[in-house]
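Record minuted for completeness.

…
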Amino acid sequence: MPASRFTPKTPNDRLVLPLDVPSVDEARALVAATDGLVGVYKIGMELQFAGGLELAKELAGDGRKIFLDVKLHDIDNTITQAVKNIARMGMTFMTVHAYPKTMRAAVKALDELNHQDLCLLGVTVLTSMNEADLTDAGYRGPIADVVEARARHAKTARMGGIVCAATEASALRRALGPEMVIVTPGIRPAGSETGDQQRVMTPAEAINAGSDYLVIGRPISKAEDPRAAARAVLREIETALS
């Protein structure tokens, strides 16, 4: 099957920068500092509750690709109507938790709108979780098996892609083929601290494992020079691709 229409074409396309800052003003400053280097800006819950939804529409209106990381999981009708509203905002990516009914309800929204410009991503298992966390939540591991099962459900539901740890990307690329994008958080450039992430890889390792999009936050946003940090990440991506 052909690759997804959302498959990145350039190294810059692959770089996803989370705007995980307390205010819209700080988010705008981070966008300005990295403009032209970052392919996708991700707006998660922290900023969503501080004016981030309006900023998302503003940035999308300016032609930037925006990843609205809402991680929806609710009753079917609520999911369908919420996804319709997000599609109308001009977002490029959005997330729902990778439960079969939730994903089917999300896909239904795009079918009813006949909307092809939003890539729905199923979140498999958060990269901050390890085997013990999964057991505490009542799941029987190992994590890799749970992630693959959810990824296959996402494919059956006709989702645009999945979110998983880069450590699982290689197996999932074999299972899913080229038609779904793989987005991997928990990416840490060589020498960076892992922070609260459990299942991590470097940008080069993630690319070689089959990741399409790399979510890299604090190593860029908390750097003394975010623009230089983004350039360094892009060099790692370019080296891996070459």
